[in-house]
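Internal ticket - ligand job 462, tryptophan:
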Amino acid sequence: MRRTWLIAPLIGTILLGGLYSSAVTAQDGGQGAPGLGDPYYPGLGNGGYDALHYTIDLSVDLQTNTIRGTTTIEAQATQALTSFNLDFAGLEISQITVDDTPANYSRDGFELTVTPAIPLEIGETFTTIVSYSGVPTPYADPAVGATPLGWLRLANTIFVVSEPGGAMSWFPSNNHPSDKATYTFKITVPKPLVVAATGVPVDEIDNGDTRTFVSEMTDPMASYLASVSVGDFVRVDETGPDGLLIRNYFPTSHATALTETFSPTSEMIAYFSSIFGPYPFDVYGAVIVNIPFGVALENQTLSLFAADVSGEVTIAHELSHQWFGDSVSPATWQDIWLNEGFATYSEALWIEHNQGQAAALDYLDELYKTIIGNAMGAPATPAADNLFDGQVYLRGGWTLHALRLTVGDDVFFEILRTYYDRFQYANATTADFIAVAEEVSSQSLDEFFQAWLYDATVPEKP
Ligand code: TRP
Ligand code: ZN
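stdout (structure tokens):
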């Protein structure tokens, strides 16, 4: 689903196709590109089609960490295709069908090339079913150092933390945030284990010894934000603003304390909705993994927290990503400060709302000292092997505070709202944000953004 990009190229190609149909079929009736040319991850994602819906239907064995099942991908060809690629790493494939007919396939690293029995025409929607099984291999990503990504099992809990590339460790996809899609999750586990999955929980099917937890993500989602967890969880529901369901999954042994820890969530949703725009999705909540591995991740509708990082500021950070990161996603991984800078600044906004302006300014002063102390580099050009560095978070966050000091509160919040409204459920580039800031403020901000986002030297506070 490429809300902003798909329509125009498709129409252009159809028009051309009308004029030169035989030539276009002969030239383009070929292979979908194996990557989308992301500046940091050229191999992630694939060309030639637009993923529309994934149904991930897996049986999970917690003891052996084995998964078995199918992922069904509904997609639309954006060119004529004799073959197309999916991103999928490890695991054993037993069959692939396209439109119910067995397809040929080959694998090279995480590139899975599927050759349907009958070539696909431009504009055609088609259904690919990949049947597979095995123990997922954690994905080693250069951007996050030693942290293994994707489907993980630690201390008798399974959980998924994929950003940026780990989704391909557990389901085949067009693994790039520029191709969002809707999702159905059907995850089967032995009783009494509980599944926490992204999306609205719609069904829990009793199969005797096992249960199938079904959830639906009806809003577009990037593959890196799809997540399931399996463990000894208890589901604790709350009602958020305007009747929003907040469903949290806590380790049973810590449910009482964690219910208290996460109790500010509803007020945070109300506050962020009032300054950014309505909460984007049909449900929210947190899943807490009782392992001290020090990470939290903003999976769509279901942020994940390691037990040691579930403090209030982190809760606000991950929640704010539902607007900035999940609803508005980066167009490329180079634009990651649009996620992390915004979420870091949202921490300060929550502190300002909850503890007052002085506390927020103290917080921001500390961040600025850290930026200066470490001579943090430019947020918009992080090192490829350190995508989630402090320069992206802290200096990215401070870029927004500096913008606020430059244009004033009213204009600043109007910029945030306009940017969110324009790019919700889609993708944005750094240039898109700069354009909105200039449009709403009626100022040329080239020098400002050059200094804060691109220059190596840390700018003075405005
Ligand atoms: N986006 C996460 C945050 O909110 C950080 C992060 C990036 C991460 N990649 C990850 C966390 C992989 C866990 C696993 O700051
Ligand atoms: Zn973040």
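Auto-summary: The CA atoms of residues 26 and 80 lie 9 Å apart. Residues 317, 321, 340, 343 surround zinc ion (ligand 2) (CB under 6 Å).
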